[in-house]
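Quick one: structure for this chain?
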Amino acid sequence: MTKNLLFLFFNKTKQKLHSQEPESPEKKLAEIGSKLREYREQQSISLDKVAVVTMIRRNLLQAIEDGKLDQLPEPVYTQGLIKRYAEAMGLDGAQFADFFPLEPPTRSSAKLSGLNLPQLRPMHLYLFYTFLIICSVNALSQLMGGSVTAKNGAGTKELALQQQEQARLIAEGSSASKNQKPDSYTAVEAARSGENAGKFGNKPVMVNVTFKAESWMQIEVDGKTEFEGTLPSGTVRTWQAEKQLVVVAGNAGGVMVAVNNGQPEQLGAPGVAKEVVFKADEIKPTAKPK
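Got it. Here's what it folds into:
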């Protein structure tokens, strides 16, 4: 009986969308969350139990029920959370997910649809693309011709200087000069070292995650969901945070975690969902059971 009422609710809502202006994503999320909460309470199911079954964090489920769009990730991820929540309750998850829009409606598009704009025929598009290709080829030819001309003069002088330098090094013939690396090599190595240090050491918390088996994963960086999805075996990913980094895995036994280039450790037991919080002000991570 309750499921039939929910289907009737969606049908009436679709009729309103055809007759009135599209509703905002916040309002649609509030309607979806209200119906999910109502059905959950009728079944006497706690929100914590739903979080365990769906492997979705409780605060995200609470945000869906309260219609708080600003506390949820991107619309495409939010749509997936709604679908998993509804399916866990035995409802049609696809129907609930389709009701939530991926992009906010714009009134300008509705106004433009009523205008009689000129239609472009295939011949017009063909001529436009041909003109665009010709212009691009001409511009590229002029650019390459100018660069080649500029390099020819400088290239001849550089070649002569290089030949003189090589002759001087051969004439010296000292073992020290043979073992010593050229200045250009030293500069390149120093630049690469600085680049790697800036890439992997610019934030207090860095977590390297290696997947020994396929697992669902959610990463939260400084309070914001950075990634959520299923990654296959053999995947290696790195995330960094300023204050706190939260790692949630559906299969903790298949995930190896190394903090700040430390020794990799298994996140938990195989087939068990687990959440681990890594804080910048603590030496060891604080683990919380999922």
